[in-house]
Amino acid sequence: MWLILTLFSAFFLGFYDILKKESLKDNAVWPVLFFGALTSTLIFIPIVLMSECGILKSGDFIFAPRLTTQEHLMVLLKTFIVLISWVFNYFALKHLPLTIVAPVRATGPLWTLVGALILFGEQLNIYQWAGMVLTLFFFFRFSTVGKLEGLSFRNNKWMWFIIAGTIAGSVSALYDKHILRQVDRVAVQAWFSFYQVLLLLPVLWFVRRKRPERVPFYWRWTIPLIGLFLVVADFLYFYAISEPESLISVISALRRSSVIIPFLFGALIFGEKNVKKKALYLGGILIGIALLLLG
Q1: Could you tell me how far CA 8 lies from the centroid of its own chain?
Q2: Segment 87-115, tens digit of pLDDT
Q3: Alpha-carbon distance 65 to 51, whole Å?
Q4: Which long-range contacts (CB under 8 A, 24 or more apart) does 220-226 make?
Q5: Rounded alpha-carbon distances, angstroms, from residue 251 to 7, 30, 294
Q6: The pTM is what?
Q7: How many CB atoms lie within 10 A of CB 120?
Q8: Is the pLDDT of residue 180 over 90?
Q9: Who wins on pLDDT, 79 or 159?
Q10: Nearest 5°: phi and psi at 176?
Q11: Where are the domains of the chain?
Q12: Nearest to 99 by CA among 283, 262, 281
């Protein structure tokens, strides 16, 4: 059961990236980010209210228990970290091809592992060292492909944005391991969604009202689907890891394979360039990540 849940989670996560790309095309980033977050909030409002009113009981599938002040602060910190990652990723995704963004995003577990080595003193076995070397090798090979398209770390800040967003996402993954041991998963998802809106609202107001020159915002049907697909992907993921017989290493590897979906979409639908080389390097990164997670 947990394996099927993980595969569906990866499916929704893959299309989540495609929906973001489509929503951001020639569009303002901050409103897209805000309304995607607002959709998630609207999904969880009835769940929290029904939990508070006693319609949903403890032990129910989607029951969201009350949180203590300390737990609220923990979720608020998670929200802040995730939003930093999203801001970098959204701006990068708007300006870079999917076939560049997807492989870089695939390296996320590498940076999570580096963080675990530094913070927790974890030890690597030979397979994990091999996976780290392989992932780094193919990651840096992407710089050669980027140069063919005029994208390099020297002249394109968006390349640094996607790396910064990926590393911030890895910090979030490390923090998730900590917070989910102490706080109910449904409550984390619900209040995380609420705090997104609270943090983004003043930023959106400042950017849209106080800046004389701003990119116009266009409403698209893909924008609310961003929030919906993320909620479903995360819910399936959290449910899968809560299964007693589930293997977190296998779940993480399968979930990371979601990058294949936006990569194929960018290659086949958007007609992006140098697909064969990128596919080779993406394959190398995914093999390296598999060694890291399964080693």
Answers
A1: 15
A2: 999 999 998 888 888 778 777 777 777 77
A3: 7
A4: 220/22, 220/23, 220/27, 222/19, 222/22, 222/23, 223/19, 223/23, 223/32, 223/35, 223/36, 223/39, 224/35, 224/36, 224/39, 225/19, 225/39, 226/16, 226/19, 226/20, 226/23, 226/32, 226/36, 226/39
A5: 9, 32, 10
A6: 0.85
A7: 10
A8: no
A9: 79
A10: -60, -40
A11: 2-294
A12: 262
Joined tokens for residue 196: 């997104």
